User: Which sequence fits this backbone?
């Protein structure tokens, strides 16, 4: 199903789509349950679990003690024994407390136990940004997990994918990590009413172009899209690709695009060192399809800890302006163009007033 | 084989099976046919045997990397265990687990982990699934004293107690973590008292009194099955062999032979065996020898997986 063809579609916010996806997945399969600190309180993880407690009750929707390590093991054990847990964390940074269980047990069990055990679990987690999120509420740690065979990692950049990836993640028989982004929670797209799945391992070309390819991860694809609009005014046509899922990665779509444009800019929502951007560029370098050696460039978090004060934080993240300038340089070999800052603002950023 | 004449005979048969399997493993090990590190539980078998005796097939038992006894007591296939240690395709995990990750889902043997403590919350998750599925099955999770130092131990007991989950926690306290004695790791030797503060039944057994452990575990499992929530047992015991490998290591200087002698004089395999009639003991021993020899033969004659199978089971379909 494409994003716009459903007859029952209407506009939903990202957080509403997350909630609706979980609602329909739980309706579809009585083995699905959701747990996580604060999922059942009045704020309901910024609305993304709203309505679930009323519909499904406290047996299937419940909070947990602050025991991320053990609770991850509990989710894994329940999954092995036939249930389908969704474990929610309000920040991705907290997943570091779950690493042992996720990496040593969840990802490995199907293999380590010779295919006799499955771990169909979903880990929902959210990256924070701005309003003082700082060092420990802002990290994009997807490459840590994408590194591990047995894990799947998906990164919805819009409401349509938020719902469809949630449903697909619940249906998948493997541990799936959904990396959400706090700044996208208020963003809107057309979302069909019925349950639908967004396929894993299928990138989306958001915008076609002949001059360069920009791959953006998570919310960075939105920033890249805005950058592409600014570039178009300069006569540069960027092809913007949302990988949608990090692992599995649809490299073929990226490869085809780079073969066409000869230039690649990867904008990750993370640091560059040993990250997804490095992986994509390495695969481009190894490609036997791409005929002419392409020019490549990567952008992501500055190689620092994330600061809280806005003046430093602004310099920490790529944004439509810096992305457009990098892309311009990559496409033309020239440095001269500086887009107007006001025109580089993204709607969701100017709308968002916190708090988190 | 005929049914056993007594609880003693049944427990002896279970203990003897683990003992003989592990002794044979130790015998074979120097040949390098076993392609896996082995952590032997010789001397500790009575704990798993006496607790698991109360479980039915649909119940779960979760062990550790020192888990041959848990696997065998719960009915795990002997041939598949031996073949797994040999790295053969017919192993319980098709050669992907070795000795440390034994599993037999068809018998309720939860897959075992080589990272200390990690199996505890996974076992609690099985108990949560049982509750959600409305079954009256139970989980027993075994762990060493070292595992109780991990954060997930306390986290797991708290959650299980909070949710009244059907699980029995059993600590096989051999007072060693690899080579480090408990006195270098615990501020106070009051584990059972600490666990009791979670509001669950907790009892310590300092002696290898197999019938007392058996009776107490039976009472606990009955009440857990009826919905009373989790319980805890700590059983002091003694590891006869080195942490990993087929040898004894009293000559290494990190523990005393004296302590070992005291425990070995109380070897349940021997003391319980003496309580059986000669006929019955002979019958049990003979049957076990046949079973173990058949398992070795099965492992020897099985083939290794082919290299093309490397990528099987990375992801579930």
Assistant:
């Amino acid at each position: 199903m494409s994003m716009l063809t459903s007859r029952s579609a209407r506009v939903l916010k990202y957080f509403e789509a997350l909630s609706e996806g979980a609602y329909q997945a739980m309706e579809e399969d009585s083995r699905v349950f959701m747990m996580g600190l604060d999922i059942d309180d009045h704020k309901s993880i910024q609305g993304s679990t709203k309505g679930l407690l009323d519909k499904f009750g406290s047996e299937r929707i419940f909070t947990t003690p602050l025991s991320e390590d053990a609770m991850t093991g509990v989710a894994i054990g329940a999954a092995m024994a036939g249930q389908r847990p969704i474990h929610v964390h309000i920040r991705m940074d907290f997943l570091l407390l779950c690493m042992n269980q996720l990496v040593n047990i969840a990802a490995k069990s199907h293999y380590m136990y010779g295919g006799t055990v499955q771990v169909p679990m979903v880990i929902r987690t959210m990256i924070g940004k701005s309003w003082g999120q700082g060092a420990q509420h802002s990290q994009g740690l997807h490459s840590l997990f994408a590194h591990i065979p047995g894990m799947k990692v998906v990164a919805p950049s819009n409401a349509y994918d938020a719902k469809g990836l949630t449903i697909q993640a619940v249906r998948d028989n493997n541990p799936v990590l959904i990396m959400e982004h706090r700044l996208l929670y208020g963003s809107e797209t057309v979302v069909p009413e019925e349950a639908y799945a967004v396929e894993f391992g299928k990138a989306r070309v958001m915008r076609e172009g002949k001059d360069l390819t920009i791959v953006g991860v998570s919310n960075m694809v939105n920033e890249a899209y805005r950058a592409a609009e600014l570039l178009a005014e300069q006569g540069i046509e960027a092809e913007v690709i949302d990988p949608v899922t990090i692992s599995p990665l649809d490299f073929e779509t990226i490869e085809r695009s780079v073969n066409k444009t000869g230039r690649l800019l990867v904008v990750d929502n993370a640091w560059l060192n040993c990250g997804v951007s490095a992986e994509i560029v390495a695969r481009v370098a190894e490609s036997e399809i791409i005929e002419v050696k392409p020019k490549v460039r990567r952008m992501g978090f500055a190689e620092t800890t994330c600061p809280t004060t806005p003046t430093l934080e602004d310099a920490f993240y790529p944004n439509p302006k810096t992305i457009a300038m990098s892309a311009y340089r990559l496409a033309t070999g020239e440095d001269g163009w500086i887009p107007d800052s006001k025109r580089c603002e993204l709607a969701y950023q100017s709308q968002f007033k916190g708090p988190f | 084989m005929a049914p056993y004449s007594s609880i003693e005979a049944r427990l002896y048969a279970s203990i003897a099976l683990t003992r003989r399997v592990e002794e044979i493993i130790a015998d074979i090990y120097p040949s390098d046919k076993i392609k896996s590190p082995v952590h032997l539980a010789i001397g500790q078998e009575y704990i798993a045997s006496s607790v698991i005796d109360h479980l039915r097939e649909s119940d779960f038992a979760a062990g550790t990397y020192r888990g041959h006894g848990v696997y065998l007591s719960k009915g795990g296939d002997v041939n598949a265990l031996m073949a797994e240690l040999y790295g053969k395709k017919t192993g319980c995990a098709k050669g992907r687990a070795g000795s440390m990750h034994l599993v037999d889902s068809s018998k309720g043997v939860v897959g075992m982990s080589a990272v200390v403590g990690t199996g505890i919350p996974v076992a609690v998750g099985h108990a949560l699934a049982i509750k959600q599925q409305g079954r009256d099955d139970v989980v027993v999770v075994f762990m060493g004293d070292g595992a109780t130092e991990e954060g997930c131990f306390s986290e797991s007991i708290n959650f299980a107690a909070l949710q009244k989950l059907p699980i029995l926690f059993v600590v096989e306290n051999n007072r060693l973590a690899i080579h480090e004695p408990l006195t270098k790791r615990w501020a106070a030797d009051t584990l059972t008292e600490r666990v009791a503060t979670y509001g669950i039944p907790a009892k310590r057994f300092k002696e290898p009194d197999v019938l007392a452990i058996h009776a107490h575990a039976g009472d606990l499992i009955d009440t857990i099955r009826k919905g009373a929530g989790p319980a805890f047992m700590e059983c002091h015991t003694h590891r006869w062999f080195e942490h990993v490998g087929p040898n004894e290591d009293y000559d290494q200087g990190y523990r005393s032979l004296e302590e070992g002698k005291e425990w070995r004089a109380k070897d349940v395999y021997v003391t319980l065996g003496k309580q059986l009639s000669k006929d019955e003991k002979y019958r049990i021993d003979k049957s076990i020898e046949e079973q173990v020899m058949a398992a070795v033969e099965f492992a020897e004659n099985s083939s290794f997986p082919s290299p093309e199978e490397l990528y099987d089971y990375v992801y579930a379909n």
